[in-house]
């Protein structure tokens, strides 16, 4: 017959060999007093767990989204520093000139072009013109129609038509002709500026371009010259000769008082 001490030893050995059961998740129905406060220590089932992407959307790292952030990633640190400094000192000519001499003039070619493009995108057109003049003095500078185009369009969109025509004159002095988009934006700018005669001057210059004409500048003029029927008829005749298969919408005469 086994002694009590031997029986106790066998019981302890049996308990050690038994696998431990994991605690079951808490269920409110298992408690007579309702659910206990605090979160459950057990993870929810996989089919009830929120997708991992929702955690990423719940936080924002402060960086701008979309094209703005992508464009900044393409600009070097020195170029970004130059842009910030130019904007900071643009109201003080003395400090601005000193900043240009110390920091902007020593930028590499790619950084200077990036600064010019970013200033145009931010509609800092006065600074963009200054940056363009700096680039023109570089040994590596060559007349580029696209550089002129971007600057002229930026000036026209900001209704800086006098400055736009100065750049336009520089472009023509270098025997460069803009594309139809540039013509259209400058014509639209003069029409918004309230100067249809200047818009017609650009139109006459466009007719001398060696490139084949496109519809866009014509349609901008035809729409903007509705209050000026004589000028509009001139453009309309040219349009019908160049694009005979295209249709032109003529609003009722009484809308603009045409007789």
Automatic annotation (TrEMBL):
<dbReference type="InterPro" id="IPR002885">
    <property type="entry name" value="PPR_rpt"/>
</dbReference>
<dbReference type="InterPro" id="IPR044795">
    <property type="entry name" value="THA8L-like"/>
</dbReference>
<dbReference type="Pfam" id="PF13041">
    <property type="entry name" value="PPR_2"/>
</dbReference>
<feature type="repeat" description="PPR">
    <location>
        <begin position="144"/>
        <end position="178"/>
    </location>
</feature>
<dbReference type="InterPro" id="IPR011990">
    <property type="entry name" value="TPR-like_helical_dom_sf"/>
</dbReference>
<feature type="repeat" description="PPR">
    <location>
        <begin position="179"/>
        <end position="213"/>
    </location>
</feature>
<keyword id="KW-0809">Transit peptide</keyword>
<protein>
    <recommendedName>
        <fullName>Pentatricopeptide repeat-containing protein</fullName>
    </recommendedName>
</protein>
<keyword id="KW-0677">Repeat</keyword>
